[in-house]
Design goal:
312 residues; alpha/beta; Rossmann fold; seven-stranded parallel β-sheet; five-stranded parallel β-sheet; binds NADPH dihydro-nicotinamide-adenine-dinucleotide phosphate; binds oxalic acid
């Protein structure tokens, strides 16, 4: 039996589609009558405290999100394998966001927007893409998709990951010991890391101060599409205020929804979107998780299983 436990998304719609796809395999929701011990799979997003109560026969926990940081902090998380969402549609949407914001900052959008507001005609030619280095933190599923889409645009690319990567056309840096060297040549810093104890708060004032200053007019830029826990918002406000950063594109926040009192709202060089960089698409999600369940029931190994010791 599959149990759905999805908050802040249309659980009824997911249940109807999963039910149709998996029939006659039983699919239930929280309000339905069912024996918890018969649940073999739970499909979760923003799991409540009682989400796993009585689920003694769990084979796997299926995460609607690609990021599992919140799930891993669940106080009663059972010891079953966690399968996270990995999907071409999700990757494409994230890359859409990354490409849009990288190209916007490369073309000095903030500068020309301010000029327009001031009715000021002031010519300044943005550098060629090849002279602008985009540094991507996190070279997993999403980071790798982003570089395949940025590469044809001609940017110089570099990546930072936990373990070394050898990707054609991307200068790879790995581990804490190469972090400063990675930052030192980066004009546009894109964050696609998972949120773990090691990466919490990584977008801080010290990090910003290490980015390359003589690449983009006005200074370096950050783009965070991963988790709000990666960023220190007070540091971003300070860095945007004193020119350490020229601009910031933020899709995620320390507290979501971003409180109306946040000073970020008022900063013209801060580009805010409400955690919409990439949504888990229903039709591809239904296909993906149905296949996971069918394969598992047929005795095949689970895919995209979270490594709990790494935290992602
Ligand atoms: P993956 O697990 O595929 O990739 C994670 C990458 O981060 C890997 O390259 C890994 O290194 C690297 N990494 C992990 N820890 C460290 C560390 N301490 N130092 C350096 N590098 C590290 O994740 P995805 O690409 O699928 O997703 C990334 C994140 O994007 C998710 O965790 C989620 O939080 C966020 N996300 C946000 C969305 C949004 O709408 N805003 C939507 C979807 C996801 P290595 O390769 O060596 O293991
Ligand atoms: C995710 C997200 O992790 O939407 O998938 O943030």
């Amino acid at each position: 039996m599959l149990l759905l436990h999805l908050s802040d998304v249309d659980e009824a719609s997911w249940a109807a589609k999963l039910g149709a796809e998996l029939a006659p395999y039983p699919v239930v929701r929280r309000g339905d009558q069912f024996a918890p011990a018969e649940v073999r799979y739970i499909f979760v997003w923003k799991a409540k405290t009682d989400a796993f109560d009585g689920l003694t026969g769990l084979q796997a926990i299926l995460s609607l999100g690609a990021g599992v940081d919140a799930l891993l902090k669940h106080p009663k998380l059972p010891d079953a394998p966690i399968v996270r969402f990995v999907d071409q549609d999700l990757s494409q949407r994230m890359s859409d966001y990354v490409v849009a914001h990288v190209t916007m900052h490369h073309r000095l959008y903030s500068r020309f927007r301010a000029d327009q507001m001031a009715r000021r005609w002031s010519q300044l030619y943005p550098p060629a893409a090849s002279k602008t280095t985009v540094g991507i933190m996190g070279m997993g599923v999403l980071g790798q998709d982003a570089v395949t889409r940025l590469k044809p645009l001609g940017f110089a690319l570099r990546s930072w990951s936990r373990t070394p990567k050898n990707i054609d056309g991307v200068e790879g840096f790995a581990g804490q010991e190469q972090f400063d060297a990675f930052l030192g040549g980066t004009d546009i810093l894109v964050n696609l890391l998972p949120l773990t104890p090691e990466t919490t708060g990584i977008l801080n004032y010290e990090t910003f101060g290490k980015l390359r200053r003589d690449g983009l007019e006005g200074g370096p830029v950050i783009i965070n599409a991963a988790r709000g826990g990666h960023q220190r918002e007070a540091d971003i406000v300070k860095a945007l205020g004193n020119g350490t950063l020229a601009a910031a594109s933020l899709d995620v926040f320390e507290t979501e929804p971003l409180p109306a009192s946040s000073p970020l709202w008022e900063l013209e060089t801060c580009y805010i979107t409400p955690h919409v960089a990439a949504i888990s698409n229903e039709s591809s999600g239904v296909r993906y998780f149905s296949q996971v369940i069918r394969d598992s029931e047929a005795g095949k190994p689970l895919v995209n299983v979270v490594d709990r010791s790494r935290g992602y």
